[in-house]
Amino acid sequence: MSADRVEGKVVLISGAARGMGASHARVLAAHGARVVIGDLLEEEGRALAAEIGAIAGDDVALFVPLDVTDHASWTAAVAATVDRFGRLDVLVNNAGIFTRGSVEDADVDEWRRTIDIDLTGNFLGMKAAVPAMKAEGGSIINISSIAGLVGFKNRAAYAAAKWGVQGLTKTSALDLGPYGIRVNSVHPGSVRTPLTADLERGFGQIPLGRDADVTEISDLILYLASDESRFMTGASLAIDGGETAGNHLREDA
Question: Which family does it belong to (predicted)?
Fold first, then answer.
């Protein structure tokens, strides 16, 4: 364990029981943070907390039940974090879902559910976390997507939510800067997780020619959580192998 880059920081991560969120928790704990795993998946979340605790120490990881669409649930998660570890330094708004459909054929209930989880969940998390961060400052990291940087065909709700995350991030960087709270958004492209492992995907549109290992995203989260990024706020950071750099599929004339 390399306990240095975020030594002593307390981090609350939503949707952390598996996938990218679990990777973020492992990497942050490996570098000295105490991590709070917020999720509705209680069995998986408690197992992850136990796994991290067995490696990094008993007082390093905590699971809290968290429904990101419910403000009271967020408030309870933040209170449990402060009660256990005495402070909150970093919030990672990681929880999200992926839905398909254009404005013509998307299901209305799916639209509302996607906005509730992928966008409103970020707002509620920030609203709950700010009072605990105001005294000492901190870092809020909102996980968006490259669908929040460019248009995505047949992804009306998902793209709208992820673009909304970028807007929420930038305006909150302005609002929260006087408290020393930094707010940045991360925009991953194709990432290899258990949820995407069985998908048949081509990578011709990606200049680096592959998807990302989940730990490559976690390394960026680590940087944003650390004091190394202390002058960075309001940024929208694409980590996509160059996918949004331009039209990589166009042949030379």
Answer: Belongs to the short-chain dehydrogenases/reductases (SDR) family.
The values of phi and psi at residue 186, to 5°, are -115, 135
Strands 90-93 and 191-192: unpaired
Please state the φ and ψ torsions of residue 17, each to the nearest 5 degrees.
-70, -25
DSSP state of 101: B
**Catalytic residue at 158?**
yes
Question: Residues 76-121: pLDDT tens digits?
Answer: 999 999 999 999 999 999 999 999 999 999 999 999 999 999 999 9
Output the pTM of the full model.
0.94
Instruction: List, for residues 47-77, the tens digit of each pLDDT value.
Output: 999 999 999 998 999 999 999 999 999 999 9
Task: Report the side by side order of strands in the sheet with 236-239.
Answer: 61-65, 34-39, 10-14, 90-93, 138-143, 181-188, 236-239
Structure tokens at 212: 């990302």
